[in-house]
Amino acid sequence: xxxxxxxxxxxxxxxxxxxxxxxxxxxxxxxxxxxxxxxxxxxxxxxxxxxxxxxxxxxxxxxxxxxxxxxxxxxxxxxxxxxxxxxxxxxxxxxxxxxxxxxxxxxxxxxxxxxxxxxxxxxxxxxxxxxxxxxxxxxxxxxxxxxxxxxxxxxxxxxxxxxxxxxxxxxxxxxxxxxxxxxxxxxxxxxxxxxxxxxxxxxxxxxxxxxxxxxxxxxxxxxxxxxxxxxxxxxxxxxxxxxxxxxxxxxxxxxxxxxxxxxxxxxxxxxxxxxxxxxx
Length: 280
Fold this sequence. Notes:
The chain is mainly α.
């Protein structure tokens, strides 16, 4: 799964960067999403593979905080970037005549840069609070990586302020982007229903279907894990959901976007040197 994730996302990045036809805002955001998914997976899976190989299931305190920091940063980036991609589709479908004006390169860079800044800021604030806690005698984490809720189970200090801040950040980085996604797609669906031809409706739906599939996979599992108090956290449910959004979703994203997109398939064939296939 790790090798497929790495290869699939790197191929997406290479195909988009090497094909001038794909130098558009939509594919710029997609390349960023593939890069983030690659980094997201690299934050967790290599350590898991080393643990399995060596049968040595330990991590240092600083290493644990560092892993948690990068994990949260890339998870938050996924949240924000999925919302940005939904906004891009809204402008392309509902405001096509103004698309080039609204989604100009400078604004696309600003949206991505703002996502990176907010993600690092939110992750750093939680890690700073976590580093102030004292831990009980048991240092055994009921998880395969250093996640927030399993670590909170081991804390002896008062975590009330931390949990309030965590829920506030979850609302800011989860509910707000998801609201943007749902609002964008509500407008998109309204515009699609006004298209007279069935072929036109199908074409527009096909461009949005990939993004909606990724949004459903990611947000569905994240909400199961994090939108609950730490007292009701179930390790088994948390582990299963975490496997889906840390390993399965980043692995499936390249297939979801490439198999449903003719331009991506052509670019991938050209990248792999199969020009006949790219002309099909």
